[in-house]
Amino acid sequence: MTMHTPAPQEAALVVDYLRYIPLAPLVGVLIHLILGQRAGRAVTNIVACSVVYVSFMLALNAFWSIYTGTPGTVLSDHVYSWISAGEVSVDFSLKVDALSALMCMIVTGVGFLIHVYSTGYMWHDPDYARFFAYLNLFTAAMLLLVLADNLILMFVGWEGVGLCSYLLIGFWYTDMAKASAGKKAFLVNRIGDAAFLIGAFMLFWGLASAGHPGLSFANINANVDALPHALVVGAALLLFVGATGKSAQIPLFVWLPDAMAGPTPVSALIHAATMVTAGIYMVARLNGLYMAAPEAMNVVAVIGATTALMAATIGVAQTDIKKVLAYSTVSQLGYMFLALGVGAFGAAVFHVMTHAFFKALLFLGAGSVIHGLHEEQDIRKMGGLRSKMPHTYWTFAVATLAIAGVPGLSGFFSKDEILAATFDHGNYGLWAMGVMAAGLTAFYMTRLTVLTFFGEFRGGAQAESRIHESPGSMVLPLAVLAVLAAIGGYVGVPHVLGGHNQIGAFLAPVVGHHEFQISAATEYALMAVSVGVAFAGIFFAWRLYRRGPEGDKVLSDWLTGGYEGMAGAYFLDDVYDALVVRPIRRTSEWLWRVFDVEVVDGLANGIASAVTNIGGVWRRWATGNVQHYLLTVLIGVAALVLAVTVRS
Amino acid sequence: MTLPIANIEVLYPLMFACAWGLLVLTVEMFSLSRRFVGIGWLSALGLAAVAGISLSGQGAGEVFAGAVALDAFSVYFYVLLSVLAIFAVFLSMDYVPLAGIIHGEFYPLILFAVAGLLVMVSATDLIVMFLGLETMSMAVYVLAGIRKDELRSNEAALKYFLLGAFASALLLYGIALIYAITGSTVLGSVANAIASTDYLAADSLVLMLGVGMLLAGFAFKIAAVPFHLWTPDVYEGAPTTVSAFMATAVKAGAFAALLRIVLVALAPVMPDLSWLMWVLAASTMTMGNFVALRQTNVKRMLAYSSIAHTGYLLVGVTAATAEAGAAVLYYLAAYGVMNIGAFGVLAALTRRRHALQEISDFAGLGQNRPVLALVMSICMLSLMGMPPLAGFVGKFYLFTAALEAGYTVLVVIAVLNSVVSAAYYLGVLRAMYFQSADAEEYSPRPYLNFAVTAAAAVTVALGLAPSPVMGAASRAFSSIILGP
Fold it and tell me: Is the dihedral of CA A626, A630, A633, A635 positive or negative?
């Protein structure tokens, strides 16, 4: 069993610089908006990167205060009282504890690297000022989400990142499909957001009637015992539905693969490293609430494990380099939810961090490939890039080994902790699903790397002559991330390997601490299983694909119909279209026919008969829809009066 | 000189508005310019003075034996209505010549409509309220049809007039029935009569019939289902700035009267009617949002959006608590400015005598007119309920108040509705930023640009710092006077 000790409440240290962490990128947005293209490329690039750098330094300062302070130190910055409703007040207050300090470091650190990379990637784009305005705005919103000390202020950032994601997915709007991908992402997220809001309202109402008004995270976690159990479970589940929207889990993950239509740095920043982890962050933030709702925790764990496995199988059959990475992200996010669901909040956040390193690196590497190949994304038309893009190859290989779980690299430590915690929790079925997903991860990532970088180039001689390695501004962030992806796991070396799991200890005051009940021998055995599975995945993928994409044929023959389902993401888009989109459209159509009489057509006829005097209008009235309206009003009045009088 | 009426100061803002309307009308007769910009300035000045006088705190209380009251509630609406009317005037100063409106009466009519609205929101007597309503309506009927050579404008005016007359008749009938039971039209006496006698007894049928008629009349003015049918046709056909005035100021005035009369004066009967308000609220927002999904014409889309927002506001009326009442007041202000901005951008895109109306007409606006596109985005996002804008904060107040009053299901319906609404508001954003079109040449439109930018700025400010307005709204709602 996993033990959980509630976080001790420490007095907050009041500081006034936290507000500048999200404010700095916002200043960047204003500069981009006002100057626009007039500033020139160089100035725009420098402004965009330096505002994020300022945030990074401030975040580093905050992180240092937490790291060196006594365990449980909290920094808080109360800006002003935003909304006051009755006895409840929603404050514009920012808070940094171990959890948000770490998240801030990821968002600003990885964010800064991706901004630098973008200056190279977007060098040829004429609309660079708009791009960096959106990217800075995203960073500001994400930092607000992370720093908010209450659920409603978090929702401001939550919606803000969604809006920026929408604007950036559709950034290259000349392609109609890309604009619709943005709309899909936004609307699917709105469904999640509605659940989030209803959950927040339930807590708001419940806490107010229990005599503990307020939606600050501290208040929710501390007073969850005062609430009826059903309300706690309901709110936890509703908030989790919100998390499945933002963090692309079953049933709301369908938008993330489509979101790959955006520029690749956007995929790296928003759809891999930061925004999509918001749901995990939120659940970890509300660990007190979730610990009090074991039913909801089980749902989280099951959804997480199922998503991890299902998305991994889809990833095996994709041919677009970014789609493979997108399903991989969905799958890895599933791991994080699995960790949350079994109460291993620290392990989930650890994986958020290592995943930010290797997945951002993978996306940036993919961007470098796409850039070097002049917008080619089909891995069947790649191959042999190892010699032509050596820097990209080396960094990409490191990330592949890291995500595959090769011992010593970052992904090994975080994934292993999640699997061990799941086993420790006693849920062997979920553990088995996690292990299978780990094997599949190693398989599809090796397939991706082999098809891209090994063998012969398959895109034709003309394309081959134009391949080039990316410029320094793009390679440098790759190198930094490769180092992090390699060694980032050493902050979480488990005790059985002689480590101290510093990150677990660092996060413990916020998310609690868990100690494994399983023996060291069991831990070794689990480790051996996951390492064995990872190497098996790598081995089979290498065997199958080293001669080129014909391996897909072998696989699809072997899996027969199943392969088609995997390639088509199990046709969930069609299912949703039939179950949700079309019914709404039909209802709208029906209501429109009943209530919205087409005045425009009628008027066109009126003009055609060339009657433009008042008499014409009168005649239209006699034959037209005013009668219809009056009849409806009359029926309405009759119904209303009847309703009123019958009742009394 | 002392006038023989006690507390005459109460009427100063009202008297000033009427007098200023006449003054503007007179000045207009001698106006040489056919653009009427000076007349617009004069009207805006008068409206600002109305707000100033009502805020100056001269004479709070009642006048004419409790027919009109200048309580904090009236002052809140006097200021709100003046501000919204000033916005409408500024929008019109460029729009009137663009739309080819050649009648200088345009501005005095707005002032008279405002005067009617002022009477309506401060009346503590049913008959006086009715007078205000009719004064306002007459002015707005004419405004809707002021483009005499435009068939659509004529049709809008005629439709609004015919259906409006019907609604007035209903209201009047309702007032008569209430008078028959309670023996008074003064709100205070009506309330006392209902409270002191057991209204559930024999006379209840007639009383409830009266209340039902009254509700139907108000439902028409606020465009609640099923009395909303006129709204899209009228908003579409009327000059765009008149639609803006109708969607914001007229709706605010009607809601004010509804709150004072139904929610406060008829409070004892409300518990029996809450289920009915529930149904009205749910069906109004659902109908409005779902039909709006189908619109390709932005004016009609905004009309259905305004119906949907009537539904959200009715959630507050259903909850019927002090918090909910204050939330409705705040929401009317938030809703007012964001709609002024949205309609204003429509007006700003008017080509010569032809208002841009289709969503496709917004294509490429992000590139060609970045400021207008930003204003429109802010208004759309706020209407959608995106934090931290005014629309979100307003919904937050409304929905938490309804939750506290126990209307959980209604709040769930409302939140789901706001998901559906995102789809059609997003359509405008998508056209502006994800579609391209060639830039059009526009004549300079300084007043329009100023007004819509100001509206967007207020939308942001109201969202970031809601406390002053919400505080005023709370005080206003708790101070409602009913008269003796």
Answer: negative
